[in-house]
Write a structure and sequence with these properties.
Number of strands of chain A: 0
Radius of gyration of chain A: 12 Å
Distance between the termini of chain B: 44 Å
CATH topology of chain A: Non-ribosomal Peptide Synthetase Peptidyl Carrier Protein, Chain A
Number of domains of chain B: 2
CATH architecture of chain A: Orthogonal Bundle
Strand content of chain B: 15-25%
Strand content of chain A: under 5%
CATH class of chain A: Mainly Alpha
Helix content of chain A: 55-70%
Radius of gyration of chain B: 21 Å
Number of domains of chain A: 1
CATH class of the largest domain in chain B: Alpha Beta
Structural class of chain A: mainly alpha
Distance between the termini of chain A: 15 Å
Oligomer: heterodimer
Number of strands of chain B: 14
Shape of chain B: globular
Largest interface: A-B, 18 and 19 residues
Strand order of the largest sheet of chain B: 4-10-9-8-7-5-6
CATH architecture of the largest domain in chain B: 3-Layer(aba) Sandwich
Order of helices and strands of chain B: HEEEHHHEHEHEHEHEHEEHHHHEHEEEH
Order of helices and strands of chain A: HHH
Mean pLDDT of chain B: 96
Largest sheet of chain A: none
Structural class of chain B: alpha/beta
CATH topology of the largest domain in chain B: Aspartate Aminotransferase, domain 2
CATH superfamily of the largest domain in chain B: Type I PLP-dependent aspartate aminotransferase-like (Major domain)
Number of helices of chain A: 3
Chain lengths: 83, 395
């Protein structure tokens, strides 16, 4: 279980790195908007990459509760576990 | 941060980006001379960003119908149709829209925005899924949010991407509404409707097509992409607006599904909005006839659209993927877009400026909208001005 979660986190950070401001360290506690400068449009495009990476559906209306990298990893883990 | 502080932060960011002395996103129009010209800041300017595709805003038939309706029925209905009733014009226009599309029925709405809000939120609910193109108009996004359904996006006009996302939904595709647009407002490109219909049929989903920018523009009688592609039977619901080719304000939905009428009783945007004014309905009815019979207007529109698109392409501007009445010049920085917009404005040409995050892929757009009412001279003037600015801004 922990291995799965860490795997998700690692892959997620790789994708976030393509959207975040360069030179900023991405850690689970990083705030997607305020620290990584991922605005609402970037977040929507990031979600499409996440869906393809993990072969899941991530409805964009559940993103309102996502603030940090960890929040997003938790959401992916939850969706993957349910599928 | 307080509620007002948030607004101040946004206002400061906007002021830092935009030039002083011009209200880019609220340009005061002092006097309207015609469907293509007006006075702004004491100068004569050329409208090249309105969506007046067929140039019908001053059509004598529409003006006369609106005047007559005001005189006989007053300036407004002052309430919703559920509470205050349907005027004969509302019912007549609904029948005329249904006849125009050869569909079973139609509903008329007060704005095009409301049509999407009402239809999407009336059709889909909390246990459903809505699959939308990533470049969808804000009214589609907002309708989806209002519905409470799960919203999934696919990459713009990418059919493999759309099908992949449908496949992931499994059995839920049967309670999925797919939404696409005839012509997309940002880049002016068309949806690959034949592929979309084929895919939606194979997954048992429903399809809503928004013809806001394609009504009057595509198809022999101007029905839109659905007519151009010959796929009226493949689309479940068609929405559109009166505020572009029909030159007024309002929206509609047509469908062969019997259940369309039930939208009137379950859709909050329909129930709680005052109905369209008599003058609006009357001018729209007159305009719909002109649109249907407007083969020559469509030919002129497309001649103008192809002419400007090819001129800008030859000049080296980066454009949307295909010619059409919406011609978007894609710029890689807001500053560059601002310079081009301001340059055009200084030459008396008023177009749309679209900055991130409103434009796709983080780009900025300077967007022209071509009309059948634009003259050869006006088209040449705009082309020549773009040529002049190309030398100045991109030297």
């Amino acid at each position: 279980m922990a291995h799965d979660y860490n795997n998700i986190l690692q892959k997620l950070c790789h994708h976030i790195g393509r959207f975040a401001s360069s030179g900023i360290e991405i850690v689970p506690e990083s705030d997607l908007i305020n620290q990584l400068a991922i605005d609402s449009v970037k977040l929507l495009n990031l979600v499409m990459e996440i869906e393809d990476e993990f072969d899941i559906s991530v409805p964009i209306n559940v993103l309102a509760d996502v603030q940090t990298v960890r929040d997003l990893a938790d959401l992916i883990h939850k969706i993957k576990s349910a599928s | 941060m307080s509620l007002l502080d948030k607004l101040d932060t946004g206002a400061a960011a906007r002021k830092a980006l935009l030039p002083e002395g011009i209200d880019v996103f609220g340009t005061p129009i002092e006097e309207v001379y015609s469907s293509t010209e007006a006075r702004v800041g004491g100068r004569r300017i050329l409208f090249f960003g309105t969506n007046n595709y067929l140039g019908l805003t001053f059509a004598p038939e529409c003006l006369q119908a609106a005047h007559k309706a005001i005189d006989s029925e007053g300036t407004g209905t002052t309430g919703s149709r559920m509470a205050n009733g349907s005027y004969s014009g509302h019912r007549a226009l609904e029948k005329e829209f249904a006849d125009f599309y050869h569909c079973r029925s139609s509903i008329v709405f007060t704005t095009g925005y409301q049509a999407n809000l009402a239809m999407i939120s009336g059709l889909a609910g909390t246990n459903d899924v809505i699959l939308i193109d990533g470049d969808s108009h804000a009214s589609i996004y907002d309708g989806c949010r209002l519905s409470g359904a799960e919203i999934i996006r696919f990459r713009h006009n990418d059919m493999a991407d759309m099908e992949k996302r449908l496949r992931r939904l499994g059995e839920r595709t049967r309670s999925t509404l797919i939404i696409v647009e005839g012509i997309y407002s940002m880049l002016g490109d068309q949806a690959p409707l034949a592929d979309i219909v084929k895919i939606k049929n194979s997954y048992g989903s429903m399809l809503l097509l928004d013809e806001a920018h394609s009504l009057g523009v595509l198809g022999q009688t101007g029905q839109g992409l659905v007519e151009e592609a010959g796929l009226i039977d493949g689309v479940d619901f068609i929405t559109g607006t009166f505020s572009k080719s029909l030159g007024s304000i309002g929206g509609y939905c047509v469908s062969n599904h019997l259940q369309l009428d039930q939208i009137r009783y379950v859709s909050r945007p329909y129930i709680f909005t005052a109905s369209p004014s008599p003058a609006t309905i009357a001018s729209t009815r007159a305009a719909l006839k002109l649109l249907r019979d407007g083969t020559e207007l469509r030919k002129k529109l497309w001649r103008n659209a192809r002419k400007l698109y090819s001129r800008l392409d030859e000049l080296g501007y980066l454009l949307g993927p295909e010619p059409g009445p919406v011609i978007a010049t894609i710029l890689h920085s807001p500053q560059q877009a601002m310079m081009l917009w301001k340059g055009l404005f200084d030459y008396g040409i008023y177009v749309n400026l679209i900055l991130p995050p409103a434009a796709p892929e983080g780009n900025s757009l300077v967007r022209c909208s071509v009309s059948a009412a634009h003259t050869e001279e006006q088209m040449d003037y705009v082309g020549n001005t773009f040529a002049e600015l190309r030398k100045k801004i991109f030297k």
